[in-house]
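Lab channel / #folding
Pinned by the channel admin:
"Please post every new chain as: sequence first, then the structure tokens as a reply. Keep commentary short and put observations after the output so the thread stays searchable."

First post following the new format, from NK:
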Amino acid sequence: MSVTKESHGDRIFEIVNYCIVTLFFLIVLYPLIYVLSCSISSPDLVATGKVILLPKGINLAGYKRVFQDSNILTGYKNTLFYTAVGTIINLIVTVPAGYALAKKELPGRSFLMYFLMFTMYFSGGMIPTFLLVKSLGLYNTRTILLILGAFNTYNCIICRTFFAAIPKELEEAAEIDGSSRFRTFLQIILPTSQALLGVMVLYFAVAHWNSYFSALMYTSDDKIKPLQLFLRKILILQEASSSMLEGLDDDVIAEQTKLKELIKYSVIVVSSLPVLILYPFLQKYFAQGVMIGSLKG
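Reply from TO:
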């Protein structure tokens, strides 16, 4: 068996690729490390620009101020619930719809696609939606935060495109063995679609985790509000307290201003860390060969 040797040009090309990828990696990584370092560094050193990469003068005042709010844990609990349950609902609604729309034999397939795409650009508007939510008795309930936006047209199109690329031979072989369409979807299509499901889980989970406008519009009870609203409240209160310092000693004003910046960095870390932890577990599906080993011949 002959072994093809790597040419000099191929090695240069590979080295250049590694350098470019490493450069992009550092460009993305630096802001994350910088924000984390600023959130635990001395406010004086942060304000004077002495924190460049690693933390200096460890100070957890920002995190103490954030977690002084008793609603933070409630917000975390609510957001975890909305993210987990909401993502499952999104998958149940969106993925099968994408699979159905990928079938050319589906009656009215073109009309359905045009109808769904129309909703991407046009909606009833904020006030009609609010009135509808009120009339249905869903205002100030957890349900509205779970079902509002349960179907995402853009993600459905991604699913449709993915399923359309799956060889028909897989389904035909399953049908010959007596499998129903529903069973084929559950036992044949979904197991070979882990890459798609991983991406969809990440998309939906991040959207739910970062969502705050729907909760701002349709909830008023602190018991069901997500984390983002409580973090927003902390920032607003901190801004308000800073604006009320006029006439006080300059040193006091300076200290409060530094603390305000520290709180901002802490809020960024508190709100982003769970998503950053989730991403590595799903990243492997992005470049995974979906059909490897599923079809021979």
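NK: The domain at 61-286 is CATH 1.10.3720.10 (MetI-like fold).
TO: also worth noting, Residues 250-283 form the longest helix (34 residues).
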